[in-house]
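Rotation project, supervised by the postdoc (A.L.). Task for the rotation student: set up a whole-complex structure prediction and record inputs and outputs verbatim in this book. Inputs entered:
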Amino acid sequence: MILATLDLLRTAGLTGAALNDIVAASGAPKGSLYHFFPGGKDQLVTAALGEAERVVGDGFRAVFSRTGPLSQKVNELFGAAASRLAASGFTRGCPVGAVTLDLEGGSERLQAVCRDIFRAWCGIIESGLDGVPLTKRGRVAQLILATLEGGLILSRARADKAPLLETGALLAETLDLAYGTNQRTKVTRASSVRPRPKGPR
Amino acid sequence: MILATLDLLRTAGLTGAALNDIVAASGAPKGSLYHFFPGGKDQLVTAALGEAERVVGDGFRAVFSRTGPLSQKVNELFGAAASRLAASGFTRGCPVGAVTLDLEGGSERLQAVCRDIFRAWCGIIESGLDGVPLTKRGRVAQLILATLEGGLILSRARADKAPLLETGALLAETLDLAYGTNQRTKVTRASSVRPRPKGPR
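Outputs recorded:
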C-alpha cells in the first residue's frame, strides 16, 4: 500500500494520489487502509515519502560518499535521475517535489515532512563536497538539489533526458571553474604542497 | 474563470484544480464553463497556463532585457520569485512546474503546452546573457530556469525565502566566477573590441 501510494505520488502528485486509486493499485481490501493507517491519507503519504527519503537518500549517498572529482559526482547524480525518469516513460519524478507543489493551506504537517526530507538529502550531498570551501558546502548542496528538482521538471515536460543531463553537466562544469574542483583533491593538494626542483642539483 | 484556474493550479497542481472548485472560485455559472471551454478542463488549463506564460515571461523580459551584470539579473530574478512566493504565504508557486509534476499518462497535449512555455522562457533568459560565451547561452538559460523551478520547491517546503535567495545568489556568483561576467558587459566589450594603439603614430 505504501509502494502503491509512492508510485501514484510520483506520477500525479498529492491530489492525484486518491485513496480509492491507492487501494485499487495495492490490491488490499479498503478496510486494511484504515486499520494500518488510522491517520488516513496524510499518514499514508508520510509513510510513502519516508520510503522515498530512504531509497533516494541511499542513491545520493552512493554517489557522494565516494572520493573523486565533484564534477563526476554531479554528473553521476543527474545521469542516474535521468535514467530513472526515462525508464518510467517520463511519467515518474521526485515524489517530494510533486507533493510540495500540491500542498494547499492546512497541510502544515506534510509540508514539514517534505522540508525535513530535503534537509536530509542536502546533508548527504554536503558531506561529499570535498574541494568546495567549507563555508560554502551547505549552499552548494542546496544548489545541486534545487537544480536536480528543476531539471526533473524540465526533462519531464520535454519527455527527454537532455535537460537533466545538460543542466547537470553545466552545473558540474561551472562549479569546477568556480572552485577549481575539477582535479582530484588528493593530487591537487600533493602537487601544490611539494616544491618543484629548479634545474639539476 | 481563467484566473481562478491559474490560482488553483499554482496552489494545488493539476489534479488539485478540480472543475467544481474552479467554477465556485470564479463565481460564474457552470454552464458558461462548457460554453466558453467546450474542450473542458484541458482547454481551460491550457488557457490558464498561457496567461501564466505571458505574465511570468514579461517579468523575465523586464529583468533580462536590461543591460547589466549577469549576477545582478540572476539575483533580481530569484528575488522577485521569492517575494511573490512569500506574498502568497508560500502557497502559490509556478503553475507550469506544478502541472508538469501532475501529468499522468494520456496528457500529451498538456505536456506539450508545458514544454513550449519552458522553451519560450528559456529563450527570453537566453537573450539577456551577454558576457556568457554564445555557444553556452542556451544551456546557461536552461540551468537558470531549472534552478529557479527547484528553488521554488525548496522555498515552498521550508515556507522561507532563503532557499530561493541563496540558490540564486550562489548561482549568480558561480556563473560570475566561471565566465567572468561580473563586470559590466559594455565596458568589457568596448575594451576587448577596440584595438589598442601601439605606441605613438
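Student's summary: The two ends of chain A are 74 Å apart (CA to CA).
Supervisor addendum: Residues 39 and 161 of chain A are 38 Å apart (CA to CA).
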